[in-house]
Amino acid sequence: IEAQFGLLFVVSLWRAIRRRDRLAWSVTLVFMPIAALFAIQLADGLAGPLPRWLPTAGTVFLLAQPVFSLRLVADLRALPRWMLPLAVGGFAIAATLLIVSTGQPSLPLILVAVAVFVVTEAVAAGYLALEAAQRRGSARSRLTIAALATAGLALAILVAGAAAATDVPATVSGILIRVIALLAAIGYGIAFLPPRWLSRAFQASEAFAYHERILASPPSAEPGDLWTELARATHQLTGASVVILALDGPELRVVGMDGVVIPEATTYPAGALAAAGDGTGGDAVTRDLVARTGLPFSEAVPVVRDRTTVGLVYLLRRRASLVGTDDATLVALLAARSANLVQRRQVLAEQERLSGQLRLTVDALQAASAAKSDFLASMSHELRTPLNAIVGFSELMVADAGDADPLTVPREWVDHIRNGGRHLVALINDVLDLSKVEAGRLEI
Fold it and tell me: What pTM was computed for the model?
């Protein structure tokens, strides 16, 4: 069991060195006392008996573990100002009594040390449970497991103290303590250092639930409504205040937010997108958002669609997050699904707009065609009458003139008028018949 805590300490230390943030070091300190105790026991077994003060130092260091747990909680949420100093004071009293005692510690001294350890650890477990109650998804599960592991460690020390004060056989109490401590070690590993497959399982369940929820949104939902839903879901899942900036032409525009007050008309140059997504926090967008909200911890999660960054989801917190990396991965997954759905909705909206324009154009053409047909059908008499007069009088001119009667115009001209008029009458008759067919006025 001590070896498992030692392994947790090594892994957490490696992550703390890589990430270089306060919260990672706080997690490392939680495992450090038990890992130090394991190292002392290992050295005692390999190098022979150690100086008496070294095991005592290991026991004193073990009493500091609840203080480190409470310090971790203070990094996650607000605590009363007097709580952490009180815990440090209790540890100092118990440690002083152990250090000044000679020989085997007396039963009252053991009970005092156990009481200080159990109470402080129970308080830390309670606050972790309260923080879990305010979260959703993988964050809630991991914080709940961390609370149970912390409570389990307190229970193991409590059983050890009860065994020392009673006549419980050492074999029975030892087995019970080791089982509880083993479960606590497993719980700490899941909560603070979960394997990748477990993190993906947590994320997959939340992503599926969110995907089902946004697909159930009405087809009339605007892209802004979908971004706002992403902001609301992200706020609930991560506990962070959320600002979503989407690329809108030559600038970044606020399209959704939750847990924070920022004017939605706020815009930033599109060139700030690459700088904001580099994770350094030194870009102008991050500085402006931190100044507006007063929330010092920020993280920019890119919104990627078709391998192109189309926006940013800013997670703004007053304190660091225990599951910040998992939160960022989950938010990136949700944001990608939202971006794809927004694109599909925009494509459908554009198709519907074009269909509406085409429908209006077809209706206008049909109306124009109907008006033309009605006009021609109604004007048949007015069109035929002048032509009939032209053709008829040209025929009279030809028929009545005779060979001896001189014409004022050449006969060929009159023939041209007559033939052209007849041809034009035939064409107009055909057009008028087609117009009557279109207008529904043709009589068979």
Answer: 0.67
